[in-house]
Write a structure and sequence with these properties.
The structure is a single chain. With 118 residues, the protein is an all-beta fold. It is built from no helices and 11 strands. Strands 2, 4, 5, 6, 9, 10 and 11 form a 7-stranded mixed beta sheet that branches. The protein starts with a strand and ends with a strand.
Amino acid sequence: QVQLVESGGGLVQAGDSLRLSCAGSGMTFSRYIMSWFRQAPGKEREFVAAIGGSTSYTNYLDSVQGRFTISRDNTKNTVHLQMNSLKPEDTAVYYCSAKISGSSYNYWGQGTQVTVSS
């Protein structure tokens, strides 16, 4: 049974940094494309960043490009999201997601709250 557990959220000021982590279990971690999504109050969940199983592929939401960096450690079954120069508009619940390439099914974590004050 695939399980994803996020950590690292918190309350920070604009311009600060946070590093989110997601630990996967019950899966062959390197087979999965790992992604981060976020959902702000009253808004739909949106894609933030993704990284391929071999780490050669990454993709970002335009508004976080250059500020956020996604990385993974397949030896530790973890994926990270380094968030720098945070803005109030980055405030949201951040979710980790896992998907095998070619599959339409996503596994989700429970989410971690990130709040950026101005």
